[in-house]
Write a structure and sequence with these properties.
Helices cover 73% and strands 0% of the residues. It has 147 residues and is an all-alpha fold.
């Protein structure tokens, strides 16, 4: 079976649950769709295939590069289907941050914190002084215990 036929079958199943439901909701005769999917959409008219693709939100695949992108998309979607609610929320948050970043909204506090842009390196002097104080206290305690 060709890639486009497989893609259409997957989308019909994902969006409508099956060919009968797709036919009923779109008004396309069940026999027409079923035959086209059984034989492969390559034998169907271009207008018919384009109509199905539009109804399913599928962009026509014209070359290997687009086919590869669709494959990566479906790989990503299949991984997301395995996530729980927390995982999906995390992915949505990351996508939102990346959309802000790509749209040039680098002033967003979320983008700044996520990308480390808003992180200000403080001087190590304060930390070093704190460590010296702790070490001095430990030395004094150790000295007092030994007396």
């Amino acid at each position: 079976m060709d890639n486009l036929t497989d893609l259409i079958k997957k989308e019909i199943k994902r969006q409508y649950g099956g060919v009968k439901a797709f036919a009923a909701q779109t008004g396309i005769p069940y026999g027409t769709i079923n035959t086209s999917l059984y034989k492969g959409v390559g034998g169907s008219s271009f207008d018919f295939v384009m109509k199905i693709c539009r109804l399913l939100g599928i962009r026509q695949v014209f070359n290997d590069e687009i086919s590869q992108i669709n494959g990566e998309y479906y790989s990503l979607v299949s991984k997301m289907e395995k996530l729980d609610a927390r995982g999906i929320a995390t992915v949505k948050a990351i996508i939102g941050v990346e959309l802000d970043r790509c749209s040039g909204n680098r002033d967003s506090e979320v983008v700044k914190s996520y990308n480390g842009i808003g992180h200000v390196e403080s001087s190590d002097d304060h930390l070093k002084a704190l460590i010296r104080e702790v070490l001095e206290e430990q030395r004094k305690e150790s000295h007092e215990q030994s007396q």
